[in-house]
């Protein structure tokens, strides 16, 4: 993957971690997938071959979009993630519109030619993954495998924030911020900062040090989801604190902290668990009964779409 210190940027998950990720990470709202398909087809994109890059355990983008395509492929550099994706697919089959199964394979964003032939892909997707790519190499590889008129769709969410209108909402967010700064800030890497700022600094084909001329700049599409819109399918819905803790535990800064403190991970000494206990206390003080502690959250999201000439 990237040229920078790999242990400080991209992180590969094992199979068990991948399966936990699939269960705990929320899927994107249908409006995200609708926006992708609408722009792709409106600009002349075909619905033959889908390639999902950085697919993780294959629980979201490739599963949501595969039924619209004749062929669907998911790749990830982590063998554990691909193993988890195949396990999930066997348990919950998803077929393309030609009744094919999704094909999962270990592969990187910078060497797409090893997975698919040149000029064979109609839609290339990367959900919450492009901030780990070596973008100059990725764009060159994408240009090689995309058909003329094919699209690249890249999207990610920002940080999850607590709705201030729930009981003790503002105090809960302050508590989360405090724990984040105290325990997890040192495990934040450039990729995490990039999604926090809605991919404003993500390199595009025409902003590279050596621009790639194979993509259309004039049809570039960017859409942002505001906090009033749902980017995930659980936004603006109540979730209990067990679900909240599991979702937050999929973040890479939390994962890295737990790797550095394996004896405390998942125990009452885990900062995420400590934060949850403080949240419970604040909710109780605000009048919420024990056993009924829930929160509502929101996030911003961004979608970038680039067209192959």
UniProtKB/TrEMBL annotation:
Extract the signal peptide range: none
What is the protein name for this chain? Answer: S-adenosyl-L-methionine-dependent methyltransferase
Where would I find the Methyltransferase type domain in this sequence? 51-154
Start and end residues of each stretch annotated as Disordered: 1-25
Q: What is the lineage of its organism?
A: Eukaryota, Fungi, Dikarya, Ascomycota, Pezizomycotina
Example of a GO biological process term: methylation
Sorted alphabetically, the keyword list is: Methyltransferase, Transferase
Molecular function GO terms recorded: S-adenosylmethionine-dependent methyltransferase activity
